[in-house]
């Protein structure tokens, strides 16, 4: 299987995430065996990011073990620090399940269909372009018909204000101050 490659940003984030982890697999004096590879594979499936502790003192032997692990299990080396190896393999089935779960709640519509709000969709109302155009045309004709009598009334009696609020007689000063008696000069 091919070795998995990750970017430096992903590697940095994974190193930070692996900091509090404890080694879950220990490779002893017997070295890398099929049972150890099986255990590493099992832990990668369940955790995706693991630490492996190697008991061997030889650095070249640890690097060879690391290459063997990454090649056979199709995982990526995150970090090699002393006798500790940090290994990562994403769980594609779990990622797909999360994406499908997010998309399961989304309403599916064709690009030609107009947007239906959630409340209407919950009631089972569906919209089509034809019905939307018909609704808009009906509203337009209602507005035109409602505006036509007002236009006729305005043509007949232009002195009447458009807002239908009665006007008061007198100036603004007389309304503010109230109706005062004319000043006769007597006190």
Q: Would you summarize the structure shown here?
A:
This protein has 187 residues and is α+β, with helices and mostly antiparallel strands. The chain has helices at residues 8-18, 34-47, 59-73, 92-104, 118-123, 129-156, 172-177, and strands spanning 25-27, 49-54, 76-81, 84-88. It has a domain at 8-91: YhbY-like (Translation Initiation Factor IF3), CATH 3.30.110.
Give the termini distance in whole angstroms: 113 Å
- Mean pLDDT across all amino acids: 81
| Beta-strand residue percentage | 5-15%
What is the CATH H-level superfamily of the domain at 8-91? YhbY-like
How do the strands of the widest beta sheet line up side by side? 1-2-4-3
What oligomeric state do the depicted chains represent? Answer: single chain
- What profile does the largest beta sheet have? 4 strands, mixed
Number of helices: 7
Task: Provide the gyration radius in Å.
Answer: 40 Å
State the name of the first-level CATH class of the domain at 8-91.
Answer: Alpha Beta
Outline the low-pLDDT stretches: none
Tell me which CATH architecture of the domain at 8-91 applies here: 2-Layer Sandwich
Give helix % range.
40-55%
Large-scale geometry: elongated
Structural class: alpha+beta
List how many beta strands DSSP finds: 4
């Amino acid at each position: 299987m091919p070795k998995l490659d990750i970017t430096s940003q992903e590697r940095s984030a994974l190193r930070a995430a692996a900091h509090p982890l404890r080694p879950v697999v220990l490779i002893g004096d017997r070295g890398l065996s099929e049972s150890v590879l099986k255990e590493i594979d099992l832990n990668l499936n369940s955790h995706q990011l693991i630490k492996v502790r190697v008991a061997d003192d030889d650095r070249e032997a640890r690097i060879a073990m690391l290459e063997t692990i990454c090649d056979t299990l199709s995982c990526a080396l995150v970090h090699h620090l002393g006798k500790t190896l940090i290994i990562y393999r994403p769980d594609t089935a779990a990622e797909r399940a999360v994406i499908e779960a997010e998309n399961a709640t989304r309403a599916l519509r064709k690009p030609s269909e107009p947007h239906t709000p959630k409340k209407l969709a919950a009631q089972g109302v569906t919209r089509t372009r034809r019905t939307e155009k018909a609704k808009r045309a009906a509203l337009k004709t209602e507005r035109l018909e409602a505006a036509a009598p007002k236009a006729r009334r305005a043509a007949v009696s232009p002195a009447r204000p458009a807002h239908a609020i009665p006007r008061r007689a007198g100036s603004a000063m007389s309304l503010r101050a109230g109706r005062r008696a004319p000043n006769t000069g007597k006190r």
